[in-house]
Amino acid sequence: MNFDKETQIRILRVASDRQQGRDVEELDSRISHVMDMHPEFEEAWSMGEMAAYPQEIDGQVVSPFVHTVLHTIIDSQLRTGEPEFVIKTFNKLRKQGMEEHEVLHAIIISFADLHFSSFRQGKPFDHLDYESRLNYLSYEDA
Q: Cis peptide before 83, with omega less than 30 degrees from 0?
């Protein structure tokens, strides 16, 4: 998934399909799953394109669109096992006692920080740096 208009439209369509009780495709079902984890975003989806903009939700400033895309990217990495160090980190943190959603957010933070800093600097995503960051994650740090 990308942070583009096409993805934004897809996410809004999934939100509408969920609200209307319509069936969704595989990728859309993964997006829907992420939406299920974040009921606090429900109101934002009714705002259409405005859901892409940061807003205060439950005392935090967040873009429901960006957050959903990040969750979906990590979900895909876990489901495909690529890169494999993501699933290793996920399993390690779960064994340390972290709740599943906390683990996802810890991985998302590492991915997002690296993704957006690479993007701002015009550099390619550094998979070795990503692996290194995930290797250092522990329940005590969260």
A: yes
